[in-house]
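Here is an idea for our session: we take a single protein and study its fold together. Once you have written the record down, we can walk along the chain together.
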Amino acid sequence: MGISSHLSTDGIHVITVDCPPVNALTVQGWFELADSLDEASADPATKVVILRAEGRGWNAGVDIKEMQNTEGFDALIGANKGCFAAFKAVYECSVPVIAAVHGFCLGGGVGPVGNADIVVASDDAYFGVPEVKQGALGAATHLARPGPPAPDAHALLHGPHDQGQRPGAARLGLRGGPPRPARRRSSRARGRHCRQGHPRHPGRQGGAQRDRPDRRQQELSLRAGLHDGAEPDGRERRTARPVRRGQGMKPRDKQMTIDEVVGRLRSGMTIGIGGWGPRRKPMALVRAILRSDLTDLTIVSWGGADVGLLADAGKIKRLVYAFVSLDSIPIEPLFAKARRDATIPEICEWDEGMFFTGLKAASERLPFLPMRAGLGSDVLVNNPSIRTIRSPYADGGTFVAVPALKLDAALVHLNRADVHGNATYLGPDPFFDDLFAMAADEVFVSCEQIVDTAGLTVDTPVQRLLLSRMMVTGVVETPNGAHFTNCTPDYERDEKFQRHYATSAADPDAWTGFKERFLSGDEAAYQAAVAAFGEEA
């Protein structure tokens, strides 16, 4: 009974509220819920938190009987602070929070739901904030946050009064929304709850309280329910675990070095490389793979110099691509040589539409998606493993069953990112980097500059926030890291260097000299050599 936590081996941290008869929480219960959330957030093994409850309803808010049985206003003040702590712990959790709601969700219980990333509700779920009838704001703002105002104001204030009137979740329009912006956190996050002022938490003071960011997406349409009076169940609650001052939880920082990223990769992996031809390629990460002992890679790419360099180094066992070009130089020279010499063991040349569809299927966790592109072409002749499928509907049409391009890892380069993994592009095209990220088990982002989360949308609209922190495994700040491809508007393609690259690739002796000068050292040596080359007449 009380608040319990369980972390599974696959990183799912389940927090269960079990406080009969109606899961109304005492002051101690709210702080205990906040502690459980903070502990789950701080554990590196946690990938997602699920909030659930036992009993006939999810939560009936604060324990009113505790207030009635406590002299003075300590219980009232403590409940306010406890709710604040729990709501904030959900909102500032470093991993996604899913609220699994059944039955009634009332009063203070609406707060954790309103702050969750995703809400999954049963057919009998209903929501209400009956405290507004008593002149208390309560969780009304949290009911409004995840969705537009309820269409029935009377239901919001009074709620349905019998089981037959309760709207099922199927009519609520509940769904998971896009990831919210990364939270701002204090360095003493676990001490932030301000527990002073209640006899059950003597002398426990937290850090400064700060307002939440107000840029929340409205995603849920909620209707209200009837508040069942919260009654104490007579059972002894578990004592909340003490929090030591000065041992605050830090937000999850995903900054890595280039070598640390390559250290996460393994020979034989399927690696997707974002960007497009000679445009915004994660070249610093590609150069690091060249220096590594990785082999037998399956590379999936809208190819440019990334494919050429990896092919020349003998790193590629299987290549899935739609084209390999440098734009102003139509065919990438090292790739052309590898094709002529048949040094890439397995070649999968796909139509561009098929390539996109394969990434989309993987991003949606589907084994394949049907499309017409490729029918009647040599793509199917040269890729006999790709099947066709007949429509089960009246049209009876035949389609290409494009297999999912599932990736073990994706490497992408964007203009700006924060330490948590949120990343934005500033140029004219996202180049499907988001599809690469969603198709991959792990995602590593190199960027021109790491900035504060709020800085990601200072000079560009929020729609250019392409990658959410929930997609990203690691972030590397690599100025000029896309060179010699472009990274508009930070810099354009280095045409002079690209011509030198192509010319050198055509001659074995010249190519040996090129590799010695530009590719024999680490990334800092490469950038220094490029700077010196640029100063030459």
User: Anything to note?
Assistant: Residues 81 and 195 are 7 Å apart (CA to CA). The longest helix spans residues 74-91. The two ends are 77 Å apart (CA to CA). Residues 147-249 have pLDDT under 50 and may be disordered.
